[in-house]
């Protein structure tokens, strides 16, 4: 404990020295004020691809912010509006799904969606866009992180190509409008 505190103090002093050297104490304000609300790692799995990744999120954030962070983390996979994502709790029998389970990972990669995942999606409540994570029982103050748990299942729209085409067909750029 004492060693950890000493390391934190050395880190703070080094940052203070750098801030003074570069003439900017403004970057030090968060450290001077102390920690704010902590973030947690939420592991997500994309249904149909089996892609597993994590995002750092505050438990006080709303689900629509989680969708935005997911899109930001995987822009090559999600090339449409983040509000079209459907998020589900990844819980089977009151336990998080395990990314080390080969059957689970194969089920997440399979198209069409296997019965196991389809039943889970129908069974578990969708994460509504304007609900805060800490309002969901599974993400309350006793939320336990693990590198092997999958917390959120991400379902892409059925036909993202049509979503992208619709968007590009009906959206005009400023240069297009100015030409007319």
Task: Give an overview in words.
This protein has 180 residues and is of the alpha+beta class. The protein folds into two domains: 2-33; 39-157, Phosphatidylinositol 3-kinase Catalytic Subunit, Chain A, domain 1 (Ubiquitin-like (UB roll)), CATH 3.10.20.90. It is built from seven helices and seven strands. The strands form two sheets. A four-stranded mixed beta sheet has the order 2-1-7-3, with helices on one face. Strand 4 (91-92) and strand 5 form a beta hairpin. It is elongated. The protein starts with a helix and ends with a helix. This is Crinkler effector protein N-terminal domain-containing protein. Keywords: Secreted. InterPro entries: Crinkler_N. It comes from Phytophthora citrophthora.
Kindly report the name of the CATH homologous superfamily of the largest domain.
Phosphatidylinositol 3-kinase Catalytic Subunit, Chain A, domain 1
Give the fraction of residues assigned to helices.
Answer: 25-40%
Strand content: 15-25%
Distance between the terminal alpha carbons, to the nearest Å?
69 Å
CATH topology of the largest domain: Ubiquitin-like (UB roll)
Name the average pLDDT: 74
Shape, please? Answer: elongated
- CATH architecture level-2 label of the largest domain: Roll
Order of helices and strands: HHEEHEEEHHEEHH
Number of DSSP E strands: 7
Tags for this model:
three-stranded antiparallel sheet, Ubiquitin-like (UB roll), elongated, 7 helices, Crinkler effector protein N-terminal domain-containing protein, disordered C terminus, alpha+beta, 17% strand, 7 strands, 2 domains, Crinkler_N, 180 residues, secreted, four-stranded mixed sheet
